[in-house]
């Protein structure tokens, strides 16, 4: 089946500030490059919100260094950005009809070249859409519990989209369940989980169905009562890592679980290992999850990391990826308490990296984070409202180091960072790119936003460049990405901010 809509190209307008604040555009220094070891390559090789199937949040591409920075803004709403190996961009978007679609985006102008129009009656769930590389095959689910496999072809202009498979798994799920994740493993099985994201999905779910679809369209499932998936999943080869937590209405001191699965050779699913974690008794202020708020991230081929949801203080928990068959060895390598007691939360994806000397994880505190703006339905008069104030949230950006051998996991550095969108690590520059607010001016009700670059090794801010002022430049929990051309793309309420190095 073939779906393509070719659109007339219209120049996009820039994003105008919704507040007028005069400040210097740039502060800091051009960074001295301190490249890191290249990121671990996971199979299958995919492009997705958290960059790869291990959810490392990192890229080997070169991001901006701070040299003669050029800032551009575009009043277009597309996310997440999926970059193929030819430099093309595929992104989710909302059509004029209100439906969610997939667009082929011009990497220079960010204009829409063509669109995939979903079958009638289907609403795409774009949070964890993925593109396999180099095939440019896109996996995306719908709220009606279909999974679509879509081929993007760059051999014609504009690029085309072809629907290869439309798989209806609704009959395998409980009535209240909705698919949240769909990802390939290395055997071309399509794994899926049901789940929800609090503040976004309003229909409660009280169970989880995990399953996979074989290349011949056989469906195998496992139902888990009283546990819900609230994040993405991780895949390495044939192994799939899934984190579950209590249902949102659970107000007891409860447990959540992290599990490793694979497809059984005899059919069905095999649980490789399963470990519990402290899920506490409540949703934290501003929180998006009742259980662990972090998508599992893989650290090389050795470990998988999540945070727990303990009431008084959360912990970074590091588990071995492979099952420990020796009863004297624990699946849990270490557990490190993070952030201040009583103001400790993490609903923002972590960043992970394996270096020559060990592994490292970066996490952000989002206790009492301001709410999502939901700009599609929010009143325009509220664009510069108090929901922009980052100073109400607890500060905290922390890096934990995990040794190559042993279990002496330690805090390497901790900074007073307030950030609610997922940053990205460039191994080529050794910089962690994020999006932050001028906290002094926030106390005066003036919202000024900056793209920032911090050293991965020290957490020191190297430079910051002003993106704009007012609520239209609030990131509203939208992440960023680095393209093949060295540009950094940051989503904001008004569209996109693009940062790149200028000429020498």
What does this protein structure show overall?
The chain is mainly β and 504 residues long. The chain contains one helix and 37 strands. A six-stranded antiparallel β-sheet has the order 1-14-13-12-11-4, with no helix packed on it. The protein is globular. The termini are far apart.
Count all strands and give the number: 37
| Regions with little confidence, pLDDT below 50 for 5+ residues | 1-10
The helix tally amounts to: 1
Q: Approximately how much beta-strand content do the residues carry?
A: 35-45%
Mean pLDDT: 92
- Assign an overall shape: globular
SS class: mainly beta
Portion in helices: under 10%
What value does the Rg take, in angstroms?
Answer: 22 Å
What is the strand arrangement across the widest sheet?
A: 1-14-13-12-11-4
| Main pleated sheet | 6 strands, antiparallel
Kindly, what is the distance between the CA atoms of the first and last residues, rounded to a whole number of angstroms?
49 Å
